[in-house]
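User: Can you write out an input/output pair for a complex, sequences first and structure second?

Assistant: Here is one pair. Inputs:
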Amino acid sequence: MSDTREEKSESRSAILLIHCPDKKGLVASVTEFIYKNNGNIISLDEHVDARKQVFFMRVEWELMDFAIPAEKIGEEFQASIADTFGMDWRLHFSDETPRVAIFVSKLPHCLYDILSRSQYEKWNAEVPLIISNHPDLEPVAERFGIDYHVFPVTKANKQEQEEKQLALLKEHDIDFIVLARYMQVLTDEFVANYPNRIINIHHSFLPAFPGAKPYHSAYERGVKIIGATCHYVTADLDAGPIIEQDVVRVSHQDAVEDMVRKGQDLEKVVLSRAVWYHLKRKVLVYDNRTIVFT
Amino acid sequence: MSDTREEKSESRSAILLIHCPDKKGLVASVTEFIYKNNGNIISLDEHVDARKQVFFMRVEWELMDFAIPAEKIGEEFQASIADTFGMDWRLHFSDETPRVAIFVSKLPHCLYDILSRSQYEKWNAEVPLIISNHPDLEPVAERFGIDYHVFPVTKANKQEQEEKQLALLKEHDIDFIVLARYMQVLTDEFVANYPNRIINIHHSFLPAFPGAKPYHSAYERGVKIIGATCHYVTADLDAGPIIEQDVVRVSHQDAVEDMVRKGQDLEKVVLSRAVWYHLKRKVLVYDNRTIVFT
Amino acid sequence: MSDTREEKSESRSAILLIHCPDKKGLVASVTEFIYKNNGNIISLDEHVDARKQVFFMRVEWELMDFAIPAEKIGEEFQASIADTFGMDWRLHFSDETPRVAIFVSKLPHCLYDILSRSQYEKWNAEVPLIISNHPDLEPVAERFGIDYHVFPVTKANKQEQEEKQLALLKEHDIDFIVLARYMQVLTDEFVANYPNRIINIHHSFLPAFPGAKPYHSAYERGVKIIGATCHYVTADLDAGPIIEQDVVRVSHQDAVEDMVRKGQDLEKVVLSRAVWYHLKRKVLVYDNRTIVFT
Amino acid sequence: MSDTREEKSESRSAILLIHCPDKKGLVASVTEFIYKNNGNIISLDEHVDARKQVFFMRVEWELMDFAIPAEKIGEEFQASIADTFGMDWRLHFSDETPRVAIFVSKLPHCLYDILSRSQYEKWNAEVPLIISNHPDLEPVAERFGIDYHVFPVTKANKQEQEEKQLALLKEHDIDFIVLARYMQVLTDEFVANYPNRIINIHHSFLPAFPGAKPYHSAYERGVKIIGATCHYVTADLDAGPIIEQDVVRVSHQDAVEDMVRKGQDLEKVVLSRAVWYHLKRKVLVYDNRTIVFT
């Protein structure tokens, strides 16, 4: 009955996420760039979308002994590799600590789970604030010592409230947002501020049952399996690029409230996996689909 | 590495499927009827739909020593129990051998699987004929020594061909039909001849991706899980009561043809489970949903 | 994106769990007893172990209008039914609130999950105390306002410490115990105080990898799926009756610490399902196996 | 309801499987070798075992326009890359058609499935012969027009029969062997002839329930999930490197024969996935574990 949680002891590493038109020599050029500068590759994943002829790559290497200082890597990579191949790329470092805002409404299960995990899984992330349209979950925030801000939203005041939320997010230097069962639809203007940086958990197996009350719809349709879907938020409701999904079996014995109970377990775990992938810089988005290098 | 397939040695039993408005005393009355006639209950399942206040029951008992002869059970049950409670009911016997027709088009995986299983699982069923709109799978039918009838279907001749098919089905005394990836939509008139007795396998996780080319749609939407759905055919395309579903994980690495390959494994197993439930008289249909007493 | 957690509005009900040698008339007798006393059956499950010829039943009925007062039901059932059939039975009421003690060591994930759930799922249970062999998780207990007692355990003092723990448990009138990754093996004497009332989560797919460090063993063996198992504790280590299991896929990419991370998600959900079944009186134990009427 | 099976149109490609001590520059060197010879990489996977410091790689590239003729690639790769890094490697070509022998006993489900698939999935493989210790499945072989050889095995004649089997396998130029529920344990001498080229399906979730009658053992232990495991055969019974596993849920309602029925569906699909990975050259074996580049 014994086992202790081990941590990979990780030295500082660089993570490069690339996509560009497919062409011969891409992997060779990128890996040669790392090798000749004395970098040790920890992991490398690549993918070619054969239909669209697009190349995707994620490569992570140790910075110890790397010939180029961290702050110059981007510049040198652009000049010596990216320009040649017309690459879109992002560079991250393993010791960055993104700042996350959590949006909630009245349901606490995802909030509890994220806050618990951020502690016991020692996430490389800080959660400086929680935003809600209801006061209900303030006690949960208090338990974990996190600021809780209430912005009641109506049709009339939505734009105004979102502006205040955005100001608050900027003030706290927020990198990305987790909608942990936040029941408001965000405006396109709001979303445009955080492209591919707002993660939502939807309580159905999308594209089945988008919109409101999916468990009720699942019950009505008589499905034998229900699901949960985590995706980046885009201007189209529940139609953004899917990061992760999972499912659980149900039967005629499950009333709507049983589906809700079973589904909440899914929501928690699917959301946390997606946030993990995002934090570990494992997600590329292209053409409303994700490449997740698990 | 050894294990032999065992058979439950089963004596003859009766299976009663019931639904009616919920009321006190239902289980007591049915089980008392069996008990006082000296029947030994092998299995009993009941379910109450709390929203609609409908009661469902499946009960199976051994006929050995049962006081009422098999051919009189229905009559006596109607008079002494069913009338009182306003029950809808069906009575089956475990030694019935339903006659099944399989409809196919060009894809052989489900056909191979059904024909193999009908042999090695010793299904209580006979497959006297296969019907197709294409000649392609005739060699498979020949391998298993089953008659194969080709009815090419066009918009113009669909009604006429269906009438011929119906004549053939009646001639062969067919009890129910399995659409094993049959690519034609059946007319309402055809379907009306076999209510809740036409089983279709749809190659998606319904209600996601109904209609044609679901694997292509799943690819486009970027889902992380694909599924297959088995349902009774009704007048609404891909909207009949769902009997069974299952899913498999996919990723960005899976091209459409990989989804097809993975999905075919699902289709086989989901279809065979649904046919098994149907054969074992485990399925009740109510309000476009199924109660499957697994 | 909206859905509110609904509660089944439940009036008070009685739950009867029965097992006895199989015989004709069992279901009829029990349901007749309920019916003639004007009880409305909410759910009924029965199972016959065909090999051992043992009958199992769980039946739940509404007490409103029931002719026998709650405190007399047991007595009357014993006299009029149980004696006749030689039944073992337990009677519960839906409004009982069992008192649960949680045992932990240093890992907080299961503890966080149980405490969160006991609140947001509105469990019919009270958690008056947490017992540990280490002080590490006291802050978690404090967050939820629950007493935390530390009993450091060594080979030398184990018996003595267990006696103190037992005294504490009795003082708090504890009904059952949840070992939420408690790293000590309990003595047979301790276990004997709570037969089928100590629930343990083991971090492997038992009977694979019993004992210590199962994730390491799973890694060494190169399995492609890992699991978690919840069982009642018996005198044999990791060999008690299994209540629930679940699994997750792993690959060569998963180091031991990845298995730990993935496995912890399993442990949480498997443990909570098992506790749910136990709380809902859905579990019968016979011959070191469980019948779980889900 | 329509979808046609699509084939990736594949030109001829080379597949290189490598492992060696981990070192800087490995990916760069291999990909540079391919690039400078004008090869277009179709897919590339690598993995580093951080504990053992071993590097694994699978790379596939199109041979069209490749500067080195197919028959010289190995030689040049050895001289220019493999020698430097101390690599173990294997080179395959996508248009090879391995020759497979299937061993069976009395159970037909895996045999039916493999033979069906080898046709409808258009496997790049030939099955020139089936070997059995019983005559029972000859009719299945006949259905598919494949030679069936019976070698009854006793303790006394096992060595002699295996020698005859080996002679037959060599005569037919067999590349690898599939044990499709073959109930005999092969001798070490036999196994030594086909290292990592004998694929067995075991009907349990190994390492749980090795050896005979695993479904009976699973029933006795009261597990809630059963599994199937495909592995390469080694001298240790049921202990070879695992290629693939899968599971299915069971309950107290499932008698041993229900587990057998559910398990057979697993066995079919797990075996076929493993054979698929093997055929596609996606499996590397190291230290009794597999790296499967799915």
